[in-house]
Amino acid sequence: ERKAALAASTGPGQTSDGHRVPLLANVGGPADVPAAVEAGAEGVGLFRTEFLFLDDSTKAPSEEAQVTAYRKVLEAFPEGRVVVRVLDAGADKPLDFLTPGDEPNPALGVRGLRSLLEHPDVLQTQLRSLAKAAEGLPVHLEVMAPMVADRVDAKAFADACREAGLNAKFGAMVEIPSAALRARSILQEVEFLSLGTNDLSQYAFAADRQVGSLARLQDGWQPALLDLIAMAAEAAQTAGRSCGVCGEAAADPVLACVLTGLGVTSLSMGASAIPYVRATLATYTLAQCRRAAAAARAADTAEEARAAAHQVLSGE
Length: 316
Ligand code: PEP
Ligand code: MG
Known about the structure:
The protein is of the alpha/beta class. 45% of the residues lie in helices and 13% in strands. It is built from 15 helices and 8 strands. α7 links the parallel β4 and β5 (169-174). The two termini are 18 Å apart. The chain binds phosphoenolpyruvate and magnesium ion. Magnesium ion binds next to α10. It is found in: Cytoplasm.
């Protein structure tokens, strides 16, 4: 039955009653594109651009090298959405030329957008490369910044995009709890939100994502994480803007239904998860997803939230 459901799993992401939730792929570079196309991804929801920078940690890649790499990904989804995240260096991905070597607590230090605002030349080169890469293509380019903490960060990023002459939507990742709490304020400066649930749980629970023994706190079903997601999704809905999820949480098929019920507007994940999420989402109505989301939020632990959502979805 499972196999039949997966085989029948083609086409756009939607609930059984036709509520559309685009299913997008997370990619780390051109090499990941074939699997995304094969899985029927409707676009890219998170293009992690770090790969280009990790080869040589002493300097940024040339504008030319960046244009070539970005264009390969943009070309693969001619009519689709491609959401590119600007360089997220620091913490677990340090770069010699950007990341201070003497930080006592790198996860809470100069990383993500913070590094780029200290090195505006690096950000400008990347944004100009993206503008050139998208030239003449019908792709819907969206560009977002990692580690946006507040409206000041969001404005600095939007200003940089305008300065680079980028013809794209500008967005903010919500991966710091302050950004979820003040999503409405951040949306005064940028057009869309994307929830990075990996870092959002790390910072909400003060639990280093690289420490395996803290897995209980990094569970995507934690009700406090669901509350933060709901807060951001509701703010986006009120503002008429999109709010996707591009962290690991989107790759769990039942959690994907709960996220849909919380008001998330697209789901981005590793390509291999797309058929499972598509098949599961197609099984339930939007109203069922909402009831499952409410049941999960009413729970006190991740385990209970998972059980409550499964019970709602299987009992109807
Ligand atoms: C996240 O934090 O959830 C995310 C998508 O970004 P990364 O895993 O690359 O930090
Ligand atoms: Mg992150």
